[in-house]
Structures are given as C-alpha cells and as structure tokens.
Amino acid sequence: MGISNLAFLWTIVFPLIVIIYYFFRKKYSVQEVSSTLFWREVMKETKVSPYLQHLQRNTLFYLQMLLFLFMILTLLQPYIKSKAIAGEQIIWVVDTSASMLVDDGKQSVFEKYKQEMHTLSKQLGGKSVTIITVDAEPKILLRDEQKIATIQKAIDELQVTYGHENWSNTMDFLQSIIEKKSTAVYIFTDAMDRKQLPTRTKNVKWIVRGTDHKYQNISLQRFGAIQSEKGVQAIAQIDNQTKKNQQATLKVYDANNKLMAEKNVSLKAGQVTKTVLNDLEMTTALTAKLTVNDEYTADQSMSALLATDQSRIYVDQSLHQLVFKAFQSIDPATSTITSKQLKTIQGRNLLVTNQTQFLKQTQNPVLLIGRDDQKAFPVQGNIKAIDQNLFSYAPIDDIYVEKLYPEVQNAKTLATIDDKPLIQQTKNGHIVVLTDLQMTDWALHPSFPLFLWNVKEKLTATESQLGTFKPGEKRVISLPNSPKNYDIYSADNEYITTLTDNGSFVAPAKPGLYYAKSDGDDAFYFIVALEQQEKTLSEGTTFQYGEVSKKDTIAKDDSVFSTILIIMILGLLIAEWEVQRRYGFTN
User: Fold this and answer.
1) Which listed residue, 168, 219, 349, 453, has the most CB atoms within 10 A of its CB?
2) What is the pLDDT of residues 300-349, one digit of tens each?
3) What is the Cα Rg of the chain in Å?
4) Whether residue 193 is found in the same domain as residue 114
C-alpha cells in the first residue's frame, strides 16, 4: 500500500485546529436538579457509564474528526500495489491461421489463448492494449484501449481466418507502431522461431506463447478429379504425420453434398499414401472428407472442380494486327484464321471479326470490331460509359475516335460518343464496337487490353466455375449480368453473403466448396482451399526475449479506496446533520 499525493499532507492542520479548540471549550455542563432527593440517582447513572456519557456529550466532535480524517485520506489518494503486466504499452499479437484450431480433446489452442487473454485483461493495471491479428497481412482490432469491457468484447469476437500467417510483414508492422516507451509484446501462436523476432530488444519485451506439445496430425494433402471414358476418377494423397500406422475412411461427395463413394485406407507411419476412386458419376465439383483419429481436423477436407474444356479465342485475319496481339497477351492460345474458317468453329469459342453476318448466329459468342456492310462517318464529342461493369477496370473517357459506324438495330447501347452508340450488345449477347482501330487511338491506351479481357470474361462466362481461392482472398471476377445480385452459398446451401459488385470479390474464410447464384441463373462454383503450409503442424515453445523497466510491473489501484472513502464521507455528513438537528451545535 502507498500514498499518491503526499503534497496534501498539510491538510492535517484542520483537524488539529478542531482538537485545540476542543481543549479550550468548557469541560462541564450545567444541569438543574429539581430536588436533592434525585441527586444521588443522577450521579450514580453518570458514574456507571462514564464513557457513554462522554461519547454522548462529544458525538459531534468525533464525527468531525472522522470526517476530517477521511477527507485527508481521500486527498492523499492511498492505493494498493499489485503485480501487473510489464511495460507501459501492451501489444497482443494473435495468430488466426488454421493451425490454431489444433485440439487436445478439451479445447483448441485458439480458445485456450482467448481464455489467457481474458485473464491478462484483469492484470493491466490501467494500461492500454493494442490487439493485432496475423494473417496474410496484419490487422489492428484495438488501438491503445483501456476499457476492460471493450478489450474483453474484442477477445470474444476473435475468429480463426484460416490464412497462413505472414510473420515477416507482421514484424515490420510492429516495428513501425512500437513507440519509445517500454513495450511488452505478447505473441499467441502455435509455433514460432526466435529468429523471426526483430533484433531490437531495448525496452521491448517479447513474450511468445507456443503450444509446447507435438500434436498428432493426418492430413489430406491433395485431391483432384479428371474425366475418363468410364466416368470421373478421383485421386487423393493422405499424409500420416504420426509415428503409428493408422486406419482412415475417405468419403467423396458431389456438388449437392450427396455421398458418391467411400473407401477405407491403411496409412503407414510417416508416409504419404495415394488412393484412387474410379467410375464416379459426372458432377460439377467433388469434395473429399477424411475421417481419422487425430487432433487437427481443418486439413481433412478438400474440394476439386472437374476439368472442363476452356473456350478459345479466334481472331479474323482481316482485323488489325493489334487486336490479335492484345488477345494473345490475355490468352496465349489465341488463334488467327480467315473469315471462312470462322464459320467452321464449333462450341462456345469467342469469335472476333468485323463480319456482321456472324451476329445472327447463337452458337459462338462474337466480338464485332467495325462493320463490313456500312461506311463510317466523322464524329466528335465526349465518350460516356453506360455499362459500368464492362468499363470498371477499362475507362474509355480519354480515348479519341475519328469515325464511327452506324448502330446495330435493336441492340443495347453500352457506351456512346456525342450521344451516338459506340459500343453495343445484341439480343444474342454479342458485343459490337462501332469503329476500327485505324479510326481511333484506343489501342495505344492501357484500357484497350483490359476492355478485351472484360469482353472475353463477359461473353465466355458460361462455365459453372469461378476457380480456386485462398481463404479471404480478394480477386476480380466476372459474372454474367443479372437483374439481381449474386448470393454466395456453401455446399450445404447455407447463405454466406451477397455480392453487390460483380467485379470485386472477397472469398469466405473457411475452406470448402461454395457457389454464387442469382435468381433464375445457373450456379457458379468455386473453392476456398487451405494453404499447404497449414497442413503440417510444428511443435512450438514458450519463451521470453528482451527486458523492460521493472517499475512497469507494479500496478497502483486506488479505485477501491477512493470509492469507500467518498461513501463514508457522505455517511458522516448525514450523521453530523442529524446530531446537529437533534442537539444543536453545542452538544
């Protein structure tokens, strides 16, 4: 226990003045007795309880002394010394990778650390806390927060994001926010090498919490599927990272989460086992789930999209060579052929030409650049994009167009110049650019190949696949236009989120099979895959590195004393008022 404000010790003068005044006051009280007959009775009562009589006569004095004493103690601010977390600045770095879900049968490492953080939050001693999560990029959840309720709420809201932790970026970020004052950095992770910590140790203490245990893990390392003459063939690789032979069950589900095949697999200790499942039914996607007795389940499920034929791009030889070069930079398999050969192309391949006759066919998507049946006319004015999705990454407001072809009848206008159609889309879905490259400087702008890429994605987006993503990965995707937004669902048909912008997409955090769907449209499947680094567990250690000032380890808690003293002062004031009301000021 200690005193915070010794400067207020001079206030003890006030009770001393009252005590001195008490010494000079009269020591007796006048008492009238109507008859000597009762004098002995009065004296007897006084002698029997002298202390009580003294207290009754001096009640107000003692109440005033106590009041002065409590007021002086309040000004001095007494406190209780207790052991607190070291450092003036506290930083908690929380690993949110999938390996934090390793479970010993009672609770996961992640939940264990959340409980530890709750305990530490009660030992802050009024110090502020910064909470940072570690994923591909570090993220600040709280900055210099002192309110325990807010800190504990942030702890409760922590979630595993499944992405692989990037310690290099995190350490650089920590170095930028650590101030000159002494800092204690707590790192909650499964395993971390001491070499990954910064070399700076002056006034910085690193406390690394590791698992201190070698967990048993059997991982589904790889899973894929291909089409064969007899159906679909699935191949899985299972890594037994334990020192014992194990038995596992591999189950394969289709895109609708229906069980397609089941197989028991014998796994040798410390080896990778390959298993094949043949003659599966045709489906859009497959999901393999491994059932085995270990302590880490996040790496026991994988999904695969079935390989499908990719659309190819065919460019008419009569077009400017820059058109072919731009498409070739997008897809190296782009071919250039004659107009007659274009008529023989089958399937959902993209045809790029200036022959308007191709606009009538519906088998292949068409990009028409220029027209062979009309003459161009001069045009001037500003370019305006109407379809923002098509031009979101390829703005065309700064290009120059000298001449323009007449519009295609009954086609939707996507961009205009001087209120005349520049780019259109027909009812069949074909895209029409009403100018040649010789009539514009568009090919010299970076937006030209980006526009062609957008067109290619727009016209060939008939495939039911969006690809494979990392947990939480941000990527630009292209989906067909729909009157309503696309919703994201899991393989179990659980709603995840809604895409408000088709161009910008953030993948869900949890690995698995998902699909995007709008009312009346087909489902577009994609996979969120766990990174390979998260499929191998390492044994961690708990250690400390660096030192901070010892004075920072002591907490001064004066909240309890201050509250009690204020309550007692109020109680004494009420008691004094009552004494004065009953007996007056000269009790």
Assistant:
1) 219
2) 999 998 855 567 899 999 898 999 998 888 888 889 998 888 888 876 78
3) 40
4) yes
Instruction: Find where tokens 């912008």 sit.
Output: 501
Nearest-CA neighbor of 67 among 574, 558, 561?
574
Strand, coil or helix: 503: coil
The yes-or-no verdict on residue 159 having pLDDT over 90 is yes
Q: Are residues 241 and 129 in the same domain?
A: no
Cα gap 432→434, rounded to integer Å = 6
Domain boundary at 259, 292, 309, which?
A: 309
- The tally of domains found in the chain comes to 4
Q: With respect to residue 479, please indicate whether it lies within any of the assigned structural domains.
A: no
Domain of 93 in residue numbering reads as 83-214+537-555
Amino acid, single-letter form, for residue 577: W
Q: Report the relative pairing of strands 486-490 and 512-517 from DSSP bridges.
A: antiparallel
Place of tokens 């072809």: 405
- Please, where are the H alpha helices in 97-255? 109-121, 148-156, 167-177
Residues in the chain: 587
**pLDDT band for position 557 (50/70/90)?**
low
Buried b (16+ CB within 10 A) or exposed e, 256-287: eeeebbeeebebeeeeebebebeebeebbbbb
Q: Per residue in 410-444, pLDDT tens?
A: 899 999 998 899 999 988 889 999 999 999 999 88
Q: Are residues 21 and 71 in the same domain?
A: yes
Distance of alpha carbon 48 from alpha carbon 59, whole angstroms: 19
d(C-alpha 329, C-alpha 333), whole Å: 9
Full-model pTM: 0.62
532 domain-assigned: no
CA atoms of 555 and 558, how far apart (whole Å): 10
128 with 71, same domain: the answer is no
Question: Average pLDDT in the 288-310 region?
Answer: 85
Q: Pull the structure tokens for residue 132.
A: 């940072």
For residue 419, with 0-12 CB atoms within 10 Å meaning exposed, 13-18 middle and 19 or more buried, which class applies?
exposed
